[in-house]
């Protein structure tokens, strides 16, 4: 025995189900859940420092053609230029966001390309770090002396210290300081 069921919604949609087939007319229709390059984006943090310590943050947002975020999408990051270290991207979260990091010791313009189910590209600039050394000289003693030849000289002793702390490419703290010995000058005393 075959049963036919006809449902009418409004005046234009007619659905027919035969036999034991199940159909829920109130369930939303499936939509395209593939990533859309035109609805997705990639941004890289500005003002990146090429010190090998400070990362540039890459934010990738993956969405469908109707603007729905896609969770669980995995992207790989490729970066042009040299002296780069790339921390792999996370899979996209519930908001469709994945994050990666780039470290570099080379100041130059770089192009990053996210590769996965779609391809996205963004550019950024790594700038050289500002010099961090500053030095101050302190004279701790000074006197005018006469050499056996009769020549008068000024003799000073002091210390030179650098108040800056710098880090090498491995992140090891390097503090600079040095001690100066006696400085001999043949200038006439005041």
Textual characterization of the structure:
With 190 residues, this protein is mainly beta. It folds into 2 domains: 41-127, Immunoglobulins (Immunoglobulin-like, Sandwich), CATH 2.60.40.10; 135-185, no CATH class. Helix content is 0%, strand content 52%. It is built from no helices and 13 strands. The chain has strands at residues 4-9, 13-18, 41-44, 48-49, 56-61, 76-79, 84-87, 97-104, 108-115, 119-127, 135-146, 152-167, 173-185. The strands form 4 sheets. It has a 4-stranded antiparallel beta sheet, with no helix packed on it. Strands 4-10-9-6 form a 4-stranded mixed beta sheet, with no helix packed on it. Strand 1 and strand 2 (13-18) form a beta hairpin. It is rod-shaped and about 115 Å long. The model is unreliable at 1-19 and 176-183 (pLDDT under 50).
Features:
Immunoglobulin-like, four-stranded mixed β-sheet, 13 strands, rod-shaped, disordered N terminus
How would you write the strand order of the largest sheet? 3-5-8-7
Order of helices and strands: EEEEEEEEEEEEE
Overall body shape: rod-shaped
Query: Gyration radius, to the nearest Å?
Result: 35 Å
Distance between the termini: 125 Å
How many strand units? Answer: 13
Instruction: Classify the fold: give the CATH topology of the largest domain.
Output: Immunoglobulin-like
CATH hierarchy class name of the largest domain: Mainly Beta
Instruction: Classify the beta-strand content into a percent band.
Output: over 45%
Which consecutive residue ranges, at least 5 long each, have pLDDT under 50? 1-19, 176-183
User: Mind summarizing the main beta sheet?
Assistant: 4 strands, antiparallel
Q: Strand pairing plus helix content: what structural class?
A: mainly beta
- CATH fourth-tier homologous superfamily of the largest domain: Immunoglobulins
CATH architecture of the largest domain: Sandwich
Put simply, the count of helices is 0
Helix content: under 10%
Kindly state the mean pLDDT as a whole number? 76
